[in-house]
Structures are given as structure tokens and as C-alpha cells.
Specification:
Length: 319
């Protein structure tokens, strides 16, 4: 036996380990802080594994459209991907908690909500063979228009850009007409007149150069939605222990770094909007009251559809 053992060992150490190459799609463009954050995550994984795992980020929906990323990871067309968590709310309302208006409006509330929501999300994703690696919030969502909005009535009839079902419901309840548009397509949707108002973060507003096509922004801070990065569990289990640890460590670092980036962008990108000529104004009490009434109605609708797990998560958050 010994006669064979040595040459085999020599052979194993002499053969360079084949680098594992993973593609990672995201819906968001290169100037988005989330994309910059997952690129830093990929770099860290590559460095720590000595090139053993190479993650290539495909931005702006270039590999898969946003709506297909989750299923692409599920079916192992790609081992890992990033998407906007609440786009899964049609599968289960638990995924949509962070896009309920005025439920969690600060980073602290968002963290508390995620702590309550996470076990339910993990359980639901596990049934699809998916494992969350990390989640990063966007800055709180504000209202962009072509004139000052004094009350909900002023939104009546506006063609309103939406990015998920909750925003579609919100726009409809405000009397506006929702149109689904992915983030990279925002400038074109405005320039062609497909839409004329939107709710999104200062980050996405500034990255879209909102000053080219609208004039007013008010930080209604209505919700703090999240992106999530998920990995296919079988793909993850196929990695050796050291590589798994490298991925999990880099994920924890990315979650913390992403939060810092998000917080820093809230003020920096709002200033960029103002510096480029957008009128940034505080929402009137009237507008806030009207939007809150819509939020209350939406939470009622959410409760009517939510599973017991989702309702328990809400109760835990509100406690
Ligand atoms: N930007 C993304 C999602 C939330 C945000 O702030 C978008 O507008 O599509």
C-alpha cells in the first residue's frame, strides 16, 4: 500500500487545484452601491481562497432579467445571485414586509424588521434549495415628481414608475397609474414619457440623473427595502470547508459594509440631487397623513394574505 500512497500524494499536491468559477447576476448597474459592494465581496472571496473561488458579477440584468434571477439560482443555472427581496412577495407576503409603507422607516427599524422576518424568509427559501448569504438595505424611499406635491390628491392620474407589487398597490391607492420599470431603464422610461413620477432612494434617483427629467424630491422615508444575496445550497455544499468559511466570512463583511455604504449615500446622494438643481423639500403634514392612510390600508390587505409565520414575524417586530 505504502508504495502507492506516496506517488498519489505527490500527484495531488503537484496538480494545481482547478479554480471554481461562479457567475453572479444582479439587476442593478455598476454605479449602484450594492453592485460595488458585491464586487468587493467577490474580490474578498477570491483573495481569501487564493483564487480557488472566482465570482464574476454580471450587473444591470445582463445575465438574467431581474424577475428570473431567483429561479436561475434555484435551478443552478447560476450558483449565486442578488435581487430585491420584496419582488418575491407574490410567492409569500413574508417576503414583502420591508416594502410595506411606514412599517419600518429608519435603518434601526429596518434591522429590527429583518431580525423578525429573516427566520421566515430563510425557511421559505430553504424549501427552494436556497440559502441567504447577506442582505443590505437601500436608503429610505422618497418621492420624485415634476412639481411640488402638497397632498396625495396631487398624485392623481400620474404615470408612476413601480418596481414591485407593493409599489404598484401604493400608486393605485394614490390614484396614480403604475408602470413596472427596472432601475437601469428609469432614464429612458421618463424621457419617452412612459412614466412621470417615482418613489425610490436618493441613490437610484441620483444614479439615474433624475435632474434630467424631473424637478422635485421629497424624502417621505416611507420604507427601507432590502436586496438579498442568495446561494444555491447544493452549490454551497459542494465547496470545501475552507472555501465555505471564506464565503460566509466575506458575506458577513459585505452585510456590514453595505449598511455603511447605504447610510453614507442617504445624505450624499440627496445632496447630489440638490446640487444638480432638484428642489428638495420636506413633505407636508397633509401629504404624510394621506400616505400613511394608504399604508394602513395596505397593511390590512397584507394581513389578509399573510401566513401564520408572516403574521408572527409582524407581531414580533411590533412588540
Ligand atoms: N432602488 C431600486 C430599488 C429600491 C431603490 O432604492 C429601484 O428603484 O429599483
Amino acid at each position: 500500500m505504502l508504495r502507492f500512497a506516496l506517488p498519489l500524494a505527490v500527484l495531488l499536491t503537484a496538480t494545481p487545484a482547478l479554480a471554481e468559477k461562479w457567475d453572479m447576476p444582479t439587476p442593478y448597474g455598476d454605479t449602484t452601491f450594492h453592485t460595488q459592494n458585491i464586487r468587493a465581496f467577490a474580490d474578498e472571496v477570491k483573495t481569501v481562497t487564493g483564487g480557488g473561488l472566482e465570482v464574476t458579477v454580471h450587473s444591470a440584468g445582463s445575465l438574467f432579467p431581474h424577475g428570473e434571477i431567483k429561479n436561475a439560482v434555484r435551478s443552478r443555472q447560476v450558483p449565486m445571485g442578488e435581487f430585491f427581496l420584496s419582488t418575491l412577495a407574490n410567492e409569500d407576503p413574508a417576503f414583502g414586509m420591508d416594502s410595506q409603507p411606514f412599517l419600518a422607516t429608519s435603518y434601526d427599524d429596518a434591522a429590527k424588521l429583518w431580525a423578525a422576518q429573516r427566520p421566515v424568509v430563510e425557511k421559505l427559501l430553504a424549501t427552494q434549495g436556497l440559502m441567504p448569504l447577506f442582505s443590505v438595505p437601500w436608503p429610505a424611499q422618497g418621492l420624485y415628481t415634476k412639481a411640488e406635491i402638497k397632498s396625495v390628491d396631487d398624485l392623481n392620474g400620474l404615470r408612476f414608475r413601480a418596481y414591485n407589487a407593493a409599489l404598484e398597490e401604493f400608486a393605485t391607492l394614490a390614484g396614480a397609474a403604475p408602470v413596472q420599470v427596472e432601475a437601469p431603464d428609469i432614464p429612458q422610461a421618463f424621457s419617452t414619457g412612459q412614466v412621470e413620477a417615482m418613489i425610490t432612494s436618493p441613490s437610484t434617483g441620483a444614479n439615474s440623473k433624475a435632474w434630467d427629467f424631473l424637478s422635485h424630491y421629497t424624502p417621505i422615508n416611507a420604507w427601507v427595502p432590502k436586496n438579498i444575496v442568495v446561494v444555491n445550497k447544493r452549490s454551497f455544499d459542494g465547496l470545501d470547508a475552507a472555501t465555505q468559511k471564506a464565503v460566509l466570512d466575506a458575506a458577513a463583511a459585505a452585510e456590514a459594509r453595505g449598511l455603511e455604504m447605504s447610510m453614507a449615500e442617504t445624505d450624499a446622494k440627496t445632496k447630489e440631487l440638490a446640487d444638480n438643481g432638484i428642489t428638495v423639500y420636506p413633505p407636508s403634514a397633509d401629504l404624510v397623513a394621506g400616505l400613511q392612510a394608504i399604508g394602513d390600508k395596505m397593511l390590512d390587505n397584507w394581513m389578509a394574505k399573510a401566513s401564520d409565520d408572516a403574521k408572527s414575524a409582524l407581531a414580533a417586530y411590533q412588540k
